[in-house]
Amino acid sequence: ADSNAVSATGIVRAIGAATTYKTVTPATVAEFSDAPVAVVINGSNAGTTAASSLVVTDLDADFFAAFDISQIGAPTAIAGATATVEVTADGATWTTVATPHTPAGHLVGVRVTYSGAIAPNTPGSLPFTAVLRDATVGGAQVVIGASQVYTNDVASSVAYPDPTLNKGATGTAAVTVTGEVVNPPTLTKAYS
User: Fold this and answer.
1) Is the bond into 36 cis (omega within 30 degrees of 0)?
2) What is the pLDDT of residues 102-143, one digit of tens each?
3) Is residue 84 within 8 Å of residue 39, measured between CB atoms?
4) List of long-range contacts for 91-98, beta carbons under 8 Å, 24+ apart
5) What is residue 143's predicted lDDT score, i.e. its pLDDT?
6) What is d(CA 117, CA 54) in angstroms, rounded to the nearest whole number?
7) Nearest residue to 127 (alpha-carbon basis) of 58, 53, 33, 51
8) Which residues lie closer than 8 Å to 182 by C-beta, 6 or more apart?
9) What is the largest CA-CA distance in the chain?
10) What is the pLDDT of residues 20-59, one digit of tens each?
11) How far is CA 32 from CA 24, 61, 136, in A?
């Protein structure tokens, strides 16, 4: 027998944790290009016990003032959980949509909620496509100067059967919009 072996019994304490991040491709677009940006919002139950829900939300007023969501894809499937995709046009009222979804108007946020038994270290994600506007929702220029960086935050929250374990996390991605340099017209005047 191994004299260094020790038998131990006990209870492993459950730990709640969340992770989140966002990807944008490409990370740079040109002004007036109508180039699509592929966005994926991601969150996961990073805890040591099963969660009862995972919510990943992208609700960023500055980003969505400059970009329109043109298409929302299907969320990744999580075994043992159902996914619900919601959108908002005002930041307060959320409406459930089936995916894929093509919005009829301007949106200021999108989220996916997973409900059920979400195993530890299980990620969920939602892809969507955003297109740069020619002007912001308020009518301002999208780019002032040579370039403008639009950061975009995403948040996730994980809820557990024991609410003292509930956690949240945030992540950020950025899109740089390069300005179109417009040369002023040259005026010449002829005298006769």
Assistant:
1) no
2) 998 999 999 999 999 999 999 999 999 999 998 889 888 888
3) no
4) 91/59, 91/61, 97/72
5) 86
6) 10
7) 58
8) none
9) 114
10) 999 999 999 998 888 899 999 999 999 999 999 999 999 9
11) 18, 20, 12
